[in-house]
Design brief:
Blueprint lengths: L23 H4 L1 H14 L27 E2 L10 E6 L2 E8 L6 E6 L9
Antiparallel strand pairs: 1-4, 2-3, 3-4
Length: 118
């Protein structure tokens, strides 16, 4: 399959300035609200709570045609750390963190129900 064909979504162009990229809270308001809610259940003062909405949307990961990760940093920024968010004891969202564990660099939504994600 050629680049850009089918269901594969490309990340937004890397030459776009970060401040020109849309905020996650604008692009995915339902997802941002759910992430914030779930983080605050884990820990009311979770250091990532309230910060996801301020991240910039860098498009969808294009590593494979079926990858559904939403990038909040340039492709390839993820480290080995993951925050697993659950609803009713089931993982529903995975947050990949940068190597320093201080920022969310991509979001994998395992259960899209009620989040308004396409």
């Amino acid at each position: 399959m050629a680049r850009g064909e089918g269901n594969r979504r490309e990340p937004l162009s890397p030459d776009v300035d970060d401040h020109d990229r849309p905020l996650m809270v604008i692009t995915f308001p339902g997802l941002v609200a759910e992430i914030d809610r779930l983080l605050r259940i884990v820990d009311p003062s979770h250091p990532l709570a309230g910060r996801v909405g301020d991240l910039r949307h860098h498009g969808r990961c294009a590593c494979t045609p079926t990858c559904r990760n939403i990038l909040t940093a340039p492709a390839g920024s993820a480290g080995p750390y993951l925050v697993q968010l659950q609803r009713d004891d089931e993982d529903v969202i995975w947050l990949s963190l940068d190597p320093a564990c201080t920022a969310v660099v991509d979001i994998e939504v395992l259960d899209e129900s009620g989040l308004g994600i396409r």
